[in-house]
Design brief:
The complex is a heterodimer. By secondary structure, chain A is of the alpha+beta class. Chain A folds into two domains: 2-68, VC0802-like; 71-134, 2-Layer Sandwich (Alpha-Beta Plaits). Helix content of chain A is 35%, strand content 39%. Chain A has five helices and seven strands. In chain A, strands 1, 2, 3, 4, 5, 6 and 7 form a seven-stranded antiparallel beta sheet that branches. Chain A is globular and about 40 Å long. Chain B has helices spanning 6-9, 14-35, 37-45, 67-72, 106-122, 140-152, 165-174, 184-196, 218-228, 341-352, 387-405, and strands at residues 88-92, 100-104, 130-133, 156-158, 179-182, 208-211, 231-236, 247-248, 256-258, 263-268, 281-288, 299-308, 320-327, 331-334, 337-340, 359-365, 370-378, 409-415. By secondary structure, chain B is α/β, with parallel strands linked by helices. Chain B is 32% helix and 23% strand. The longest helix of chain B is centred in the first third of the chain and has 22 residues, at 14-35. Chain B has three domains: 6-104 and 250-329, Rossmann fold; 111-235, ANL, N-terminal domain (Rossmann fold); 333-418, ANL, C-terminal domain (GMP Synthetase, Chain A, domain 3). In chain B, helix 2 (14-35) crosses helix 3 (37-45), helix 5 (106-122) packs across helix 6 and helix 10 packs across helix 11. In chain B, the strands form four sheets. Chain B has an eleven-stranded mixed beta sheet with strand order 4-3-5-6-7-8-9-13-12-11-10, with helices on both faces. In chain B, strands 16-17-18 form a three-stranded mixed beta sheet. Chain B is globular and about 70 Å long. Classes of the chains: A alpha+beta, B alpha/beta. Chain A binds chain B through residues 6, 8-10, 12, 15, 36, 38, 40-41, 43, 45, 62-64, 66, 68, 97-98, 115, and chain B through 378-380, 382-387, 390-391, 412-418.
Chain lengths: 142, 431
């Protein structure tokens, strides 16, 4: 599994930029990102090259940060690649809490970040289907 | 059997009244001491002998009763009569987890209705009136008392209902309401809604506003009377021991006449507890004289008042107080309901199953609506990676607080660094 960090942000001008600045100053590279927002607040989910350092530096600056384990699944980069995974999860009764794409610098590979419910069952389904699961270190290396 | 006729009580010779108050006070103190363990213990702790109260001035020997004492003895700890003599049980929001429960004997109810009736009929309410009552669930007890009093006067009553501003407006216009009972804040908001929708006040049957729950400032009175072409009457009451009309305006509209035939009033310095010189402001402290089920001895109301020493041209010998804005305890008035920080915190903790470390509160008063805004700081305990869980928390807290306090509560999640000074839990009112 891969490590994702989630940050709580108010839906207020400048908070997102402030957070981005803090990460940039600490030489943290953001690999994948998803912002789930409501009218009042947002939960920002990040895959970074150094999650431990990112967590520390954000916490030191007063942000509330959580660590969450997610599945980084390599999909077949063709139409229907994503659908295949979704169907598998449906059949197994696994819910998808959220998902977002990973910007892969390598051509021909599409990686999707998933949070399953329940997580263990989702991972079982992926493994049984023979889909490559990327570990945190693989993601960070890219 | 009534101990006094409420109508003539208003005009009783002052010297006679003082004598009567002393007699009733002594009877009340003896009864409270004899039947309520809380008072017996309190007196003992303060080395106060009931028999030592030989004059009204010597009431200073007795200890005070505070709002938190009422909530601590939940539910029936302060009743002075057996439960089987209680015919009604009222619940008012307390300061913490427990609400304040008060009880009434049949005679108490008669007296309270007479007090409210007197206040309403002084405001001109009669059999040909249609009274609409717009009070929050947190003031539901007053709604019932006003309803009973108005019915006794033969008026048509549209009783307390929790309806939207729109519905209240519609009823006001369509049902030909002639008297509206509500809080000053709500009256202003309703007026704004009416005027914004293009209603001409002269087309309304509304001619009287009975306002309770908050002090009525001269500016607000003027705005309402000019905006709606009517007369506003201010009433004062306690929420713990309903009800309304405990002090009421007469046609002079200069101060509120205290129901001194049923209460002994003192104005004390909130810090020291000593009575202030007559005419100076302090905290209104009340002792019940005719209440049987739930006597209160030197109850500190938290309301800021000053006595108006001059006799009133109306002829009533009940002394008047000027009700001043601002509170003297740690509570805040939200739509007429007293809200304390501890109360909010205890309900939040219960709903979240954790004690929030970062929170702020702010009364919100807008053009057409008001309530309480609660800021909940998102630290690691409160945070969740899933938006639906965070939204669920917001929903749960605001629903629980709205229900417990009886006023609308909105909850906002905030970053812990964006909440302002730590020691300022109550933020200034937002407009």
């Amino acid at each position: 599994m891969a490590e994702q960090i989630s940050v709580f942000l108010e839906n207020k001008a400048g908070r997102l930029a402030e957070m981005a600045r803090i990460l940039a100053d600490a030489s943290i590279n953001i690999r994948a990102l998803s912002l789930a927002d409501t009218s009042d607040f947002g939960v920002l989910r990040l895959i970074v090259n150094d999650p431990e350092k990112a967590r520390t530096v954000l916490k030191d600056n007063g942000f509330t940060v959580r660590r969450t384990e997610v599945a980084a699944v390599e999909l077949e980069d063709r139409p229907g690649g994503l659908l295949a995974v979704l169907d598998l999860m449906d059949d197994a009764g696994v819910n998808i809490e959220y998902m977002y794409a990973y910007a892969s610098p390598r051509g021909g590979r599409a990686v999707m970040i998933f949070r399953f419910d329940p997580m263990e069952k989702g991972l079982e389904v992926i493994e049984k289907a023979g889909l490559p699961l990327m570990e945190g270190t693989d993601l960070q290396a890219w | 059997m009534l101990e006094t006729d409420v109508k003539t009580g208003q005009y009783m010779d002052p010297a006679q009244r003082l004598q009567r108050q002393l007699e009733l006070l002594q009877a009340t103190i003896n009864r409270a001491h004899g039947t309520v363990p809380f008072y017996k213990n309190r007196f003992m702790e303060n080395r106060a002998e009931p028999s030592s109260v030989e004059s009204l001035d010597s009431i200073g020997r007795l200890p005070f009763t505070y709002r938190k004492d009422l909530a601590e003895h939940y539910p029936y700890g302060l009743f002075a009569v057996p439960l089987r003599d209680i015919v009604r049980i009222h619940t008012a929001p307390g300061l913490g987890v427990h609400p304040v429960v008060s009880g009434y004997t049949r005679q108490d109810l008669v007296i309270w209705r007479e007090i409210a009736t007197r206040a309403l009929s002084t405001a001109g309410l009669g059999a040909s009136d249609i009274l609409q009552i717009c009070l929050d669930p947190g003031l539901a007890n007053w709604g019932r008392d006003y309803k009973d009093a108005a019915e006794a006067l033969g008026a048509s009553v549209i009783p307390l209902t929790s309806l939207s501003m729109e519905k209240q407006r519609m009823i006001l216009a369509d049902y030909k309401t002639s008297v509206l009972s509500t809080t000053p804040t709500f009256a202003v908001q309703l007026m704004n809604t009416l005027l914004a929708s293009g209603v001409n006040p002269n087309e309304l049957a509304l001619r009287t506003l009975v306002l309770a729950g908050e002090p009525l400032t001269p500016e607000t009175r003027q705005a309402l009377e000019e905006g709606l072409h009517l007369t506003a009457w201010s009433h004062y009451g306690l929420s713990e021991v309903p009800g309304p009309g405990l002090a009421f305006e007469c046609e002079e509209h200069h101060g509120l006449h205290l129901s001194e035939d049923h209460f002994l009033a003192e104005i004390v310095d909130p810090a020291s507890g000593t009575p202030v010189p007559e005419g100076e402001e302090g905290e209104l402290t009340l002792t019940t004289l005719t209440t049987r089920a739930f006597p209160l001895i030197r109850f500190r109301t938290g309301d800021r008042m000053r006595l108006i020493p001059e006799p009133c041209p109306c002829g009533r010998t009940l002394r008047r107080v000027q009700w001043l804005p601002g509170r003297l305890d740690d509570t805040v008035l939200i739509r007429g309901v007293k809200v304390h920080q501890d109360q909010i915190l205890s309900h939040m903790s219960r709903v979240l199953s954790l004690v929030p470390r970062h929170f702020r509160f702010r009364p919100v008063r807008g053009e057409t609506a008001s309530g309480l805004e609660v800021w909940l700081g998102v630290d690691n305990d409160v945070f969740s990676d899933e938006v639906k869980i965070l939204e669920g928390r917001v929903q749960a807290v605001s629903a629980a607080l709205s229900q417990e306090l009886g006023v609308p509560v909105s909850v906002r999640l905030k970053e812990t660094t964006q909440m302002g000074p730590e020691n300022q839990k109550w933020m200034p009112e937002a407009l």
